[in-house]
């Protein structure tokens, strides 16, 4: 997708790339539009995100709903300004451990994903605004705890 046509889809600070049959994300082109802090990639054909996607640290809202994502990049937690993330209706089973670094995340929808049982239970149903806010809080805490446990096990192994 040419950069010019990307800018045509920019309205205020929102870049709407929904319903474009995208199977890849034009990260370099998106990085050239730092004004776009809200990105809508919903209803495309995405099965994965490029490893450099988390370099788009200017993003505060991302809608990736209704794609076919099976995983997120391991360094997804580098999106440190992210506040709102919609992952409804994908094929995600797990989230990368770095997700706990999304400390500004206030809203998360993981509904309609084949999540691993523990994660599904923690994420909840997200049927309204409050449940999606709770999902963000609970999932971040869960992954922070998982990361702490991993670090503890690494330290224990180093001492052996």
Automatic annotation (TrEMBL):
Keywords: Leucine-rich repeat, Repeat. One of its GO terms (cellular component) is cytoplasm. InterPro entries: Leu-rich_rpt, Leu-rich_rpt_typical-subtyp, LRR_dom_sf, LRR_domain-containing. This is Leucine-rich repeat-containing protein 59. It comes from Magallana gigas (Pacific oyster). The lineage of its organism: Eukaryota, Metazoa, Spiralia, Lophotrochozoa, Mollusca.
